[in-house]
C-alpha cells in the first residue's frame, strides 16, 4: 500500500489546530474548528442535553442493538423537526427515513443510494466552495462530482446569477447538492426570494435535489426559519433527499446522531426505499449508535426539554451574531477603510473574511491568530475577551 497524501495540512482545521497547539503565545486565538465554544472559549454541553442524558441514564435502559434504521423515536422526531409537523409528505407517510452516523453518514448513505438507484446522470453538483468533505464522500460513493458557482469573491457574497445559470445548464436530470442553511464555508445563504428562483431552476433542469442540513437552528436561532429552503422545495413539488446532523444544534458532535431521508412519490414507494436502505446499511455498519439518538429523541419529544433546547439553540446563534457585530465594530473603530459588512450579513458558524492566503499566513506568524488558508474564520472561536485583539490583528494585516 503506497503512503497517501497527508490528510493533515496547514489549510485544514486539524492542521491549524496542530500549529495552534505548538504556539506558546499566551493570547493565541484559534478560529478553525466548526464546533461551538462558549464566551470563555470552552466546549459547551447544552443543559437540555445533559438533563435528557441524566434522565435516561438513571432509568436503567439497556444497551441492546438498535434496528438497522436506528432508534425509531429519534428518526420520527428528526424528520418532524426538518419537514415540519404539518408537512404533506410526512402526513401521508411517504418519507423514508433512517438514523445515520451523524451528517457525514447521512451524506454517505445518500451517495450510495443514488449510485445504486438514481435513474439519471450519476453526477452530483456541489457549490464552489463547499464543505471540504463533500467531494470525497460522493466520489467514494461512486458518483461523479461536478461544481456550480456559488461564491463571488469580488462582492464577498453570493454569485446568485452564476449559480442559477449553472443549475440551468448542467445536464438534465443531474443531482444538485444544496446547503439548507448556514453555508459552510462561506456563511452566505440565498434569500427567501432567491431560494424560490433556485427551486425553479432545479425544476427546469429536472434535477434531483439533495439538501445537506447540518446547522438547523444554528443560522437564525429558529429551527423552522432555517428549514425554509427544504420546505419551499417540497411546496414546489420537489422530492428532496435530506441529510441531517445533530452535531451542531445539540452539541452532540462525538455522539454521531444524524438522519437520512428520502421524500418518495407514495407510501408504496417509501416501503420500497425503506427496504433498500436497510440492504445498504446492513453491510456498512449493521446499525447505528444509540446513545446520542436517545438523547436527541428525548430533547425533541419532551415538551419542557424541547422548549429549553430551542432557547439554548437561540442562545448559541445569538452569541455568534453578537461576536460578528463586535468584530465588525472593532474593525471600524480602528479606522479600517475596508467594508466589513459581510461579517454581519453572513450567518452561521463561519465567516468568509476575504483575507488572502498571505494575510492568513501573516496572521498566524505575527499575531498567533489561526484560521484556514481560504480566510474562513469560525465565529464560535471569538469571545468578548479576544475580539479586540483579533480585530487589531486583522486590521494590521489588511491595512
Ligand atoms: N455538512 C456540512 C456542511 C458540515 O459543515 C458538516 C460538519 O462540519 C457536516 C455536514 C457533517 O457533520 P457531522 O458528520 O459531524 O454531523
TrEMBL record:
EC number: 2.6.1.1
Residue span, Aminotransferase class I/classII large domain: 27-394
Keywords, in A-Z order: Aminotransferase, Pyridoxal phosphate, Transferase
SUPFAM superfamilies the record matches: PLP-dependent transferases (SSF53383)
Any Pfam family the entry gives: Aminotran_1_2
GO CC aspect terms: mitochondrion
InterPro entries recorded: Aminotransferase_I/II_large, Asp_trans, NHTrfase_class1_PyrdxlP-BS, PyrdxlP-dep_Trfase, PyrdxlP-dep_Trfase_major, PyrdxlP-dep_Trfase_small
GO MF term list: L-aspartate:2-oxoglutarate aminotransferase activity; pyridoxal phosphate binding
Cofactor section: pyridoxal 5'-phosphate
Catalytic reaction(s) noted: L-aspartate + 2-oxoglutarate = oxaloacetate + L-glutamate
Keyword Transport annotated: no
A single GO BP: L-aspartate catabolic process
The keyword Transferase belongs to this UniProt entry's keyword annotation: yes
Leftover remarks: In eukaryotes there are cytoplasmic, mitochondrial and chloroplastic isozymes.
Similarity remark: Belongs to the class-I pyridoxal-phosphate-dependent aminotransferase family.
Subunit comment: Homodimer.
Protein's UniProt name: Aspartate aminotransferase
Lineage, uppermost ranks: Eukaryota, Fungi, Dikarya, Ascomycota, Pezizomycotina
Amino acid at each position: 500500500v503506497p503512503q497517501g497524501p497527508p490528510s493533515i495540512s496547514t489549510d485544514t482545521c486539524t492542521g491549524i489546530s496542530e500549529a495552534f497547539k505548538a504556539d506558546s503565545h499566551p493570547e493565541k486565538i484559534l478560529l478553525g474548528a466548526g464546533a461551538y465554544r462558549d464566551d470563555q472559549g470552552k466546549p459547551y454541553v447544552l443543559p437540555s442535553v445533559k438533563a435528557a442524558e441524566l434522565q435516561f441514564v438513571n432509568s436503567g435502559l439497556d444497551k441492546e442493538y438498535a434496528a438497522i434504521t436506528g432508534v425509531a423515536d429519534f428518526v420520527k422526531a428528526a424528520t418532524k423537526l426538518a419537514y415540519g409537523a404539518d408537512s404533506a409528505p410526512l402526513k401521508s407517510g411517504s418519507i423514508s427515513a433512517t438514523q445515520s452516523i451523524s451528517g457525514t453518514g447521512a451524506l454517505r448513505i445518500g451517495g450510495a443510494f443514488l449510485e445504486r438507484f438514481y435513474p439519471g446522470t450519476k453526477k452530483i453538483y456541489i457549490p464552489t466552495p463547499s464543505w471540504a468533505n463533500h467531494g470525497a464522500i460522493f466520489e467514494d460513493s461512486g458518483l461523479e462530482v461536478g461544481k456550480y458557482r456559488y461564491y463571488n469573491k469580488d462582492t464577498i457574497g453570493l454569485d446568485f446569477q452564476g449559480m442559477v445559470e449553472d443549475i440551468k445548464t448542467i445536464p438534465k436530470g443531474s443531482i444538485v447538492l444544496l446547503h439548507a442553511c448556514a453555508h459552510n464555508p462561506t456563511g452566505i445563504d440565498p434569500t427567501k426570494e432567491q431560494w424560490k428562483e433556485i427551486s425553479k431552476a432545479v425544476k427546469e433542469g429536472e434535477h434531483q435535489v439533495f439538501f445537506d442540513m447540518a446547522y438547523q437552528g444554528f443560522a437564525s436561532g429558529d429551527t423552522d426559519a432555517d428549514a425554509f429552503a427544504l420546505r419551499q422545495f417540497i411546496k414546489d413539488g420537489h422530492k428532496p433527499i435530506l441529510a441531517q446532523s445533530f452535531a451542531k444544534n445539540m452539541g452532540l458532535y462525538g455522539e454521531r446522531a444524524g438522519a437520512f431521508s428520502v421524500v418518495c412519490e407514495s407510501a408504496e414507494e417509501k416501503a420500497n426505499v425503506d427496504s433498500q436502505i436497510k440492504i445498504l446499511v446492513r453491510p456498512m455498519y449493521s446499525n447505528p449508535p444509540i446513545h446520542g439518538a436517545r438523547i436527541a429523541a428525548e430533547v425533541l419529544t419532551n415538551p419542557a426539554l424541547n422548549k429549553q433546547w430551542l432557547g439554548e439553540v437561540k442562545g448559541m446563534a445569538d452569541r455568534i451574531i453578537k461576536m460578528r457585530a463586535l468584530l465588525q465594530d472593532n474593525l471600524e473603530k480602528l479606522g479600517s477603510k475596508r467594508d466589513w459588512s459581510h461579517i454581519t450579513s453572513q450567518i452561521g458558524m463561519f465567516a468568509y473574511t476575504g483575507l488572502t492566503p498571505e494575510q492568513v499566513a501573516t496572521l498566524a506568524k505575527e499575531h498567533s491568530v489561526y484560521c484556514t488558508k481560504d480566510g474562513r474564520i469560525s465565529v464560535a472561536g471569538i469571545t468578548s475577551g479576544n475580539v479586540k485583539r483579533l480585530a487589531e490583528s486583522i486590521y494590521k494585516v489588511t491595512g
